[in-house]
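Supplementary notes (optional reading)

For those who missed the lab, this is the record we used. Protein: Glucose-methanol-choline oxidoreductase. Length: 371 residues.
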Amino acid sequence: MQQGISAFEDLNGSGHERVAYAPLSVAGGTRMSAARAYLHRATRRPNLRLELHCEVRRIIFDGTTATGVEVMTPDGEARFTARREVIVCAGTMESPLLLERSGVGDPDVLAAGGVPMVAANPAVGENLRQHRGAVFALRLRGVPGRNRELVTPAARLRTTARYLLRRSGALAHGGTTVLAVLRSSPAVAGPDMEVLFTPVSVSGHDGTSAGADAGDGVTVGFYPHAPTSTGSIHLTGPSAHHPPRLVPGYLSTGHDRDLTVAAFRRVRQILEADPFASAASETAPGPQVSDDDSVLRYVLEHGFAGNHQVGTCALGPEGAVDDDLRVRGTQRLRVADASVMPTLTTGNTVAPSMAIGWIAGDLIRHGKAVA
Ligand SMILES: Cc1cc2nc3c(=O)[nH]c(=O)nc-3n(C[C@H](O)[C@H](O)[C@H](O)COP(=O)(O)OP(=O)(O)OC[C@H]3O[C@@H](n4cnc5c(N)ncnc54)[C@H](O)[C@@H]3O)c2cc1C
C-alpha cells in the first residue's frame, strides 16, 4: 500500500493492481475441502452412493460408447455400469492417463504404450499448463514474523496448543497470508503476475527443507499469470503402475521467459523499497541473480510449480473435449475437472475447478449451463 498498490477486501477482480489477504477455504477454523462442502451433505440423497478407497483402472466401452468403469476396491476388482454416462474427474494429471489407459488418445501414444485404440483423440495429455515461479527469502530486522512459533519443538507444541484452543497463531493461516496481483512493468495494460507473501522463511528456500529458519524471516514468491508454455503427460504402458512420461515444458516460450524476468525484477523492486527495505534484507536468491540468464536459471532450477496444472483434456475446437465437456470420438463420456481449462486462469485454480463442477452438473442435468 505504501508503494501505491490499492488494498481490497476481495482479491478477485480485474483490470487494476491490488493487494488483499489471501482468500481461504476455511470454516470454523479448519480447512473446508470440496468433499466436506459438497459431497458430505449430498450423501443423504438416496440416489448417491460413495465408494471410498477405490481406484478406477479403466473406462469400459461398447464400441466408442462408455458403459462403465473397472475399479480396484478394497475387496478386489469390481465393475460399475453406467446407466447414463461416465464422468471423469481425476484431475489434470490423472484424467488424461485414465483416458489413455482406456484407449482414448493419440494413436501413436496408445500404440507405444501397448493399449488397443478405442477412439483417436490426439489432444489428450497435451497442452499441460502450469504456473512456474520462484521465491525471495528475507531476513527480518526488528519485526517478529512467525518463524519463532515453529522453529523449536517447544515452540511447535505451544503453537499447536494455541491453534487447538483458540484457532489462532501460525497454524491458523493458510501459509500465504497476503496476495498481490500486479503488472510486471508499467508498459503492460493490466495485471499479469501474482505475488505471495508468507510470514515464515525456510532454510532451503527452494523447498529442500521444510523447517522454519532460526532467525525471523519472510518469504515472497511470485509467478506470471498466464504462461503460454505447454508440456504434456502420457502413459508409457497399459497399467496404472507404469510411470507416466511428464514433460513440464516450463519457460519454453519467449513470452514466458520475458515475463518471468520482468516479474522477478518487479518483486525485487518492491523489496528494495520501503517498507521492506527498512525491515528486511534479501538472503536468497541474492545479488548474484540479476541478469536475465541467471534469473531464468534460478526460476527453473530453484523455483516452484504453482500446483495449478490445467489443460490436458482441454476444451476448444482442437481440444480433447467439446463445449459440453464430452470426450471427442466417444459417446456418454465427459471430463469435468481442471484438465478441461484450455489456458491458466489469472489466479489460483481451486475455485475455477469447483465452478467447472457446477457447470458440469448443469450440463448433465439440463443439457446446458444454467446461469
Ligand atoms: C499442494 C497443492 C496446493 C494447492 N493450493 C492451492 C491454493 O492455495 N489455491 C488454489 O486455488 N488452488 C490450489 N491448488 C490447486 C487446486 O487444488 C486444484 O486446481 C484443484 O484441486 C483441481 O481440482 P480437480 O477436481 O481438477 O482435481 P483434484 O482436486 O486433484 O481431484 C481429483 C481426484 O481424483 C482422484 N483420482 C485420481 N485418479 C483416480 C483414479 N484412477 N481412481 C479414483 N480416483 C482418482 C484423486 O485422488 C483426487 O481426489 C493446490 C494444489 C496442490 C496439489
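If you only remember one thing from this example: The two ends are 36 Å apart (CA to CA).
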